[in-house]
Amino acid sequence: MGNTEVNINGIRLNKTLFESCKWGSTPDGGMNRVALNDDDKSVREWFAEQSKSYGCSVKVDQVGNMFATRPGMNNSLPPIAMGSHLDTQPAGGKYDGIVGVMSALEVMKVIHENDIKTYAPIAICNWTDEEGARFSPAMLGSGVWAGVFTPEYAYARTDKNGTKLGDELKRIGFLGDTPAIYKENPLLAHFEVHIEQGPILQREDAPVAVVTGVQAMSWFNVELRGREQHCGTTPMDARADTLLAAAKMIIAINEAALGIPGSLASVAVINSTPQSINTLASRVQFNIDARAKDNGVLAQLEMRLKEVCDEVSAKTGVKIEVWDRFWNSPRITFDERMVETVRASAKESGFKYLDLQSGAGHDSVYTSKICPTAMIFVRCKDGISHNPSEFSTEQDIEAGAQVLLRAVLAYDNIIQAQEEHKH
Amino acid sequence: MGNTEVNINGIRLNKTLFESCKWGSTPDGGMNRVALNDDDKSVREWFAEQSKSYGCSVKVDQVGNMFATRPGMNNSLPPIAMGSHLDTQPAGGKYDGIVGVMSALEVMKVIHENDIKTYAPIAICNWTDEEGARFSPAMLGSGVWAGVFTPEYAYARTDKNGTKLGDELKRIGFLGDTPAIYKENPLLAHFEVHIEQGPILQREDAPVAVVTGVQAMSWFNVELRGREQHCGTTPMDARADTLLAAAKMIIAINEAALGIPGSLASVAVINSTPQSINTLASRVQFNIDARAKDNGVLAQLEMRLKEVCDEVSAKTGVKIEVWDRFWNSPRITFDERMVETVRASAKESGFKYLDLQSGAGHDSVYTSKICPTAMIFVRCKDGISHNPSEFSTEQDIEAGAQVLLRAVLAYDNIIQAQEEHKH
Fold first, then answer.
1. Based on the domain organization, do B195 and B255 belong to the same domain?
2. Which residues of chain A neighbour B309 with C-beta distances below 8 Å?
3. Last residue of a domain, one of B290, B305, B329
4. Chain B touched by A196 (CB under 8 Å)
5. Would you tell me which residues 120-149 of chain A have a C-beta closer than 8 angstroms to some C-beta of chain B?
C-alpha cells in the first residue's frame, strides 16, 4: 500500500494543538479544562467538526466518550483506535492528553488527504474525564468502556460543588446513546501517544519511547500514634515524637527504594495532629506511593517498606496504628505484537527511541484489559507535567505522531493479512 | 507570728478543686471551660462567693481579671498575690491553672480560719484567658495587667465564631471597672502554683519544684520549595523531593538539640502541598519550637538549626524559601528573694524538691515583668497536660499548697521587717 511515503506535518499539528487550546487556556500559558466544563464542551464540539471534515463519523457513548471513525475497506471489523483525552488538570498544561488526540487527528488528516484506503476502519477516541481532577477517579470514561465502572457509577460522581457528572454530560450535550461498554462498541486495537511526564527521554536524548507496559503500583495509608507532649517541658529523651518517627520512616522508605533496583517509593502527603507549634504531634498520617517494574519487585519493595517502618516504630515507641494497602495495580504488559509494531515504526522513522514502562496511569491501562494496546511516549521538558510549564517541542510531537501514523498503517496491514489469511 | 504551725488540708483542697470543676467537666474526666463561656461565668461567681466567705473583698478589672483580697495590718501596701487561672483548654484537664487558684483559696482558708493577721494584704488572682484557647493569644489577662496588651486589644480578640472577648465579658457580667493595669492596681508580689506539665518531677520522684525562671524560646516558620514531580515517572535520582528534604531537616533539628546540652528543639506542625499521593510535594511548611536554659545557648541552638537545614538544602536541591524567627522570648529569671523564699519553704516543709525552669508560658511570665514573682511546680502524671487524663495526686497538690502557704507567710514577714526597718 505504499504508506511509507506519507508524513506528518509537524507545523500543522502544533498549530492545531494550539487552536484546540484556545478553550481553557490560562494567562500563565497553561490550561484549565477540567472534564465537562464549558471549555471541554467547546473543544469537544470543535473536535467533532474537525473529525467530520476528515471523513469521520462521530459517535458519543453514554459517558461522553467520543469515537470519530473513518471507514475502511472491511467495516465489519471494529476500528483501530488512536485515543487519549482532551480534559486537563485545573492548573495543567497544553500537552498531557491533548498531544494524543491532536496527533491522532493529524494522522487522520494525513490518511484522508492521501486518500489512503485502510483495511480496517480507523478511529480517534476522546476519553471522558481521564484526569479525574473534577470527577474522581481518574480514567473514568475509559474505565466505563472497559467494564471497570458502570455508567451509573460515573453519573453519580460529583465535583467539589456537588454537581453530578451525569447532569454535566446532559448539560453540555454529550450524554450520547452509544452503549458505553466495549462489548457493544468494540475496538480492534488502541494506540495512544502521550507525553512522558518524566525526565528519562530528555536525559537519554531521545524524542520518543516505545511503551512496553505499566509499572506495578500500590498505594498505602499509614497512620502513626505517639504522644502529645509539651515541646517546652518534655526532655528530648522522654518523647514519643510522632512527627520525628514519621520523618525517620520517610527517609527509610526512600532508602528502601534506592536499595531495590527497578523500584520507586515516594511520600508526598503528610498530615500531623494537633497543628500546635508547642505540642508534639500525637498522630501523623502519610501515604506511600510504591511502584516497581514487575509484581515480584513490588512485593519485595512492599515487604521492605513495612520492615523499615516497623524498625523505626520499635526504636521510637511510636505505634503504626494503620498500615493499609488500599490500592494495588499489578504490572500491565502491553500486547506484544502492538508494541513490536510501534518499535518497528520508531526504528523505520529513524528516531532514537527507548523502551520504557509507563509510571503513570493512562486510558491505555484500561483499554489494554480489553483490546491490544500500545503507547508512544513523547519527550517533555524536564519531565514536568500537570503544570502550566508542561512543554514538548514541535519536533518531538511530530516524531510521536509520525511513529503513530506508521504504526497504525502497519498494524492495519497486519490485520488485513490476518483476515485475508482466514478466507 | 508562729505561722509554722499552720497546715494545708489536702483532702479539703482536693474536694474544693473537684467542686470547682463541676462547671465545665466532660464525661471523659476532663474539662472544657474555655475563657468566658457559661461555665467560666459560673466558676467565677462561685470563686467570688468562696473568697468572700474567707474574708476577702473581690475586685474585677476591665478585662475580667479577679482580685480577691484579704486585708492585712498595713493596707497601704499592695497585696501579696497568689494567682493562676480557672479557664481550661477545650479538651483540657482539671489541674492546669485550677490547682493554682484552688491552692491559693486553700491558703486563704487556712489563714482566715487560723485568724492570721498578715502584715500586707493577701490576694488571690484569677487571670482571664490564660489558655488563649478561645481567644488568642495566651496569657491575655495577665498580659493586659502587665501592660503588654491594651484592654482594647483584648476586647477585639474574637473566637472561632467571631464573638468578641469584650462582648463576652459584658455578657457574663465580668467587665469590671478596676483599671486593668498594674500601675493603678498594683501587686506587691506574685506567687503561682502550677502543675509541671512535664515528666521531670515524676522521673526524679519529687512532689514539687522551685521554679527559677522561664526558658528562652523562639518560634520559627520554615518554608521549603522543591519540585512537583510525578511519583511514578521521576527516577529516584532525578528528584527535588521537598518532603524528603523536610524529613531530613526534622531529624537534623532533633540531633542539633540533642547535641547542645540545655536545649530543646521540636517540629510539631508540618504541611505539604499539593496533597496528592502521586505528586511529590513542591512546598512544605513546618514550624520549629526552639528553647534553651539561657539566651546564649538558645543563640547557639538557633545558629546550629540554620546550619543543619542549610546543609540538607544544599544536598537535596530543595530551597529554604522562608526562615522566619517570628517569635522570641528571652530567658526570664524570677526574683531571687522570691525564689529563695519558695526554696526555703519547700525545704522546711520537708519535701523533696528540684530547681526547675519553666518550659511553658504562665501568667507569672507577665507578672514577673512588673513585680517579684516565683512559681511552685506540682508533679503531674507522666507529664501529661492539656488533656482529659491530666492528673496530680491529692498528696502532691497538698505539698504544693503547703509550700505556697509557708512562702506567702514568710514573704509577708520579710515585707514586714523591711517596712518596719524603714520607719
1. no
2. none
3. B329
4. yes
5. none
Cis peptide before B137 (omega within 30 of 0): yes
Q: Mutual orientation of helices B10-20 and B394-422 as an angle, nearest 10°?
A: 100
- Do A270 and B272 make contact, defined as CB atoms within 8 angstroms? yes
Residues in contact with A94: Cβ distance below 8 Å, sequence separation at least 6, in sequence order: A17, A18, A21, A25, A29, A30, A31, A390
Q: Which of chain A's residues have a Cβ under 8 Å away from the Cβ of B266?
A: 231, 241, 278, 280
Mean pLDDT of A324-328: 94
CA distance A198 to B77: 77
- Interface contact flag, B233 A197, Cβ < 8 Å: yes
B250: which chain A residues are within 8 Å (Cβ-Cβ)? 243-244, 247
Structural domain ending residue among the three candidates B280, B299, B329: B329
pLDDT of residue A4: 52
Q: Give the DSSP letter of residue A158.
A: B
β-pair type (B216-225, B319-329) = antiparallel
Measured between beta carbons, the chain B residues lying within 8 angstroms of A331 are none
Residues 317..376 of B with a Cβ closer than 8 Å to A: which?
358-360
Contact present, B278 and B230 (Cβ < 8 Å): yes
Q: Is the same domain home to A149 and A259? A: no
In this structure, the answer to whether residues A143 and A268 fall within a common structural domain is: no
Whether residue B3 is predicted with pLDDT greater than 50 in this model: the reply is: no
- Asked if B238 and B404 touch (Cβ cutoff 8 Å), the reply is no
B331 contacts: CB under 8 Å, gap ≥ 6: B213, B214, B215, B216, B292, B293, B294, B295, B298, B357
- Pick from A206, A197, A355, A358: which is nearest to A293 by CA? A358
**Ranges of H-type helices in B277-393:** 295-316, 336-348, 363-367
| Chain position carrying cell 466505563 | A144
Which range of residues forms the domain containing residue A367?
3-214+332-422
- A3 pLDDT more than 50: no
Other C-beta atoms closer than 10 Å to the C-beta of B273 total 16
User: How far away is chain B from the Cα of A132, in angstroms, using its nearest Cα?
Assistant: 12
Angle subtended at Cα A217 by Cα A212 and Cα A220, rounded to the nearest 5 degrees? 170
Number of other residues whose CB lies within 10 A of the CB of residue A417? 11
CB distance from A264 to chain B under 8 Å? Answer: yes
Smallest CA–CA distance, residue A245 to chain B, in Å, is 9
Q: C-alpha cell of B178?
A: 478596676
Judged by DSSP in three states, B195 sits in strand
Tens digit of each residue's pLDDT (9 = 90 or more) over B282-340: 999 999 999 999 999 999 999 999 999 999 999 999 999 999 999 998 999 999 999 99
Of A198, A248, A250, which is closest to B243 when you measure between CB atoms? A250
